[in-house]
Amino acid sequence: MEITIDQGLQMIQAAQKITFLTGAGVSTPSGVPDYRSLQGVYQGLEAPEYLLSNDCLVNEPQKFYEFVKHLYHEEAKPNVIHQRMAKLEAEKEVWIVSQNIDGLHAAAGSQHLVNFHGSLYDCYCRNCQQPVAWQDYLQSDRHKECGGQIRPNIVLYGEGFEESVIQQAIHAVEKAELIVIVGTSFQVHPFCDLIYEKSSEANVLVINQTPIQLAGPYDFIQTNGVAVFEKL
After folding, report:
1. Is beta strand 150-154 parallel, antiparallel or unpaired with respect to 118-125?
2. Model pTM greater than 0.90?
3. What is residue 175's DSSP assignment?
4. Which end of the chain is less crowded, N or C, counting CB atoms within 10 A of the terminal residue's CB?
């Protein structure tokens, strides 16, 4: 059912246990391109699915590295959506489960955060397994200590998910009385399957530019997240 921004705000304000499920639309106001933009930039070259795959990392590491470097947006700052979600943690039991790998929820100060697909700002050496500063990774994809290949700790196409991450995300959804889906078409598995873990009593609020497909009913605000969270 489509509702107004004010009605959505009332739902958020009334709930004490809220879990936000966020996607690329949360970060586009910060200047981080969404996935469709990546497809546009690389259309006619190679699909981002391959360039962000384990196959590319292993078989064509330089091609992988040159692509991933362009996913870093050091100038991007948390916007009002990230900021208000983080602030809500001081008032309510709030969790964020995000598809985004841009680190902006963490930069805004969110503590109860599950980076479902990992983070570009968490890098390590595939050879010695030591953590490596992301700034060093942008300078070279080789670890100067041992010569091993550095990679960001993100889930690539062709890779599985850590069970601990999935369980943490499930726990965050299970205990919420309100699930708020923000800025995502909600089509990527297994992220979109998290909705099946919600309590039967939990309400679902979707804040997105377009409607999404869900098995059950949900309240819908057809707008971008900024329009809602700047009023929160």
Report:
1. antiparallel
2. yes
3. T
4. N
